[in-house]
């Protein structure tokens, strides 16, 4: 059995989910070949980097335009793809080259292309769309989609309200690496460590203004050690390294789960994947002034589920709010328990339930 996973690198969330699904499927089934492909690298190999660069510029410099487009199109049905025939020809070649029996999409544009491919006489292979944000934007919804994997019951209800049949919607959360399920805040609390741990991620994307005054206040928090993960932002890493006594600075790491497991509280953006990593790690989250449309929806989800706090007010004293929350063990424990309960509401074992449904008549062997 050959499974083709299509994704893109608008941020790294979509790509991360694609690779998580690949790993989970390969871990479960012996005789399954899974390949992950960047849709834009496939269909526009000369220009895909420029596409991502343009997106980054829009997010950082013209987020108001992005949000206006996001809001306007949220409930509006899509028109046909521009250059549809060109895209179909490109994707048909990839499907043939990989001999795909199933396509999983973690990006709306990928689902749109496969939908168009099937509509225009392509092979009738199953299309599985894995939605990577809590909000069900109209761009995720496409004809010829055989199953939707959604983060929560609220996402399922929103899809149903937009005409998607309930029996093809599976609640599975947003797939994250299995390590996040092992390194949890509750495991840390069992060790009875008295010193509080604060984790900050996402500053390299501009979501947190790590100014000197802010950093000094965080550094002075009583009985709190802070870790900042700067990712690929080497400039920020060099600026902060060894500058503050109680702040550890980490550059790029593929062990984020380890730092989440050591923390009592995280400050981060409300990206879908990051949010569900914290849910898996049962780590309460603080989000500071979310500004992108999909992240605002995710932030409302955080508030509604009582799994963290959102700081909306531009005049808020953020260090003071952080100090108050990280020392409120009853509140943190309540948030962690809400996260644990939320995980238990994920009624779908994504890799097994979906694959077994569509390949019930095929001989596929699970790893013993």
Structure description:
It is a single chain. The protein is built from 17 helices and twelve strands. The two termini are 18 Å apart. It folds into two domains: 2-173 and 347-358, Rossmann fold, CATH 3.40.50; 179-344, Glycogen Phosphorylase B (Rossmann fold, 3-Layer(aba) Sandwich). The strands form two sheets. It has a six-stranded parallel beta sheet with strand order 2-1-3-4-5-6, sandwiched between helices. It has a six-stranded parallel beta sheet with strand order 9-8-7-10-11-12, sandwiched between helices. Helix content is 46%, strand content 15%. Mean pLDDT is 87; it is low at 203-207. By secondary structure, the chain is an alpha/beta fold. The longest helix has 16 residues, at 13-28. Helix 3 (48-61) crosses helix 4 (63-73) and helix 5 (84-98) packs across helix 6. Belongs to the glycosyltransferase 28 family. It is found in: Membrane. Its main location: membrane. This is Glycosyltransferase. Pfam families: Glyco_tran_28_C (PF04101), MGDG_synth (PF06925).
């Amino acid at each position: 059995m050959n499974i083709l996973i299509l994704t893109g690198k608008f941020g790294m969330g979509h790509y991360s989910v694609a690779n998580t699904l690949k790993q989970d499927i390969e871990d479960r089934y012996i005789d399954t070949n899974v390949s992950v492909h960047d849709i834009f690298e496939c269909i526009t190999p000369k220009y895909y980097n420029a596409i991502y660069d343009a997106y980054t510029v829009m997010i950082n410099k013209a987020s108001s335009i992005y949000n206006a487009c996001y809001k306007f199109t949220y409930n509006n049905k899509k028109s046909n793809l521009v250059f549809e025939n060109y895209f179909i020809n490109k994707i048909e070649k990839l499907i043939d080259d990989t001999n795909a029996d199933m396509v999983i999409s973690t990006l709306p544009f990928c689902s749109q292309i496969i939908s168009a491919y099937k509509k225009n006489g392509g092979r009738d292979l199953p299309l599985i769309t894995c939605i990577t944000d809590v909000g069900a934007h109209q761009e995720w919804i496409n004809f010829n989609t055989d199953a939707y994997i959604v983060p929560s019951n609220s996402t399922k209800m929103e899809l149903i309200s937009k005409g998607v049949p309930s029996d093809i919607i599976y609640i599975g959360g947003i797939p994250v690496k299995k390590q996040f399920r092992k390194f949890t805040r509750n495991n840390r609390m069992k060790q009875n460590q008295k010193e509080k741990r604060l984790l900050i991620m996402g500053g390299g994307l501009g979501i947190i203004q790590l100014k000197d005054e802010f950093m000094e206040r965080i550094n002075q928090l009583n009985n709190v050690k802070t870790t900042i993960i700067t990712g690929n932002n080497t400039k920020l890493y060099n600026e902060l390294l060894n500058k503050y006594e109680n702040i550890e600075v980490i550059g790029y790491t593929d062990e984020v789960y380890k730092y989440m497991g050591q923390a009592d509280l995280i400050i981060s953006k409300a990206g879908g994947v990051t949010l569900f990593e914290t849910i898996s790690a049962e780590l309460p989250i603080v989000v500071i002034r979310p500004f992108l449309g999909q992240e605002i929806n995710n932030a409302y989800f955080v508030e509604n589920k009582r799994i963290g706090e959102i700081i909306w007010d531009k005049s808020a004293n953020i260090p003071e709010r952080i100090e108050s929350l990280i020392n409120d063990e009853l509140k943190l424990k309540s948030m962690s328990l809400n996260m644990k309960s939320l995980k238990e509401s994920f009624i779908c074992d994504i890799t097994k339930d979906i694959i077994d449904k569509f390949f019930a008549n095929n001989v596929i062997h699970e790893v013993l």
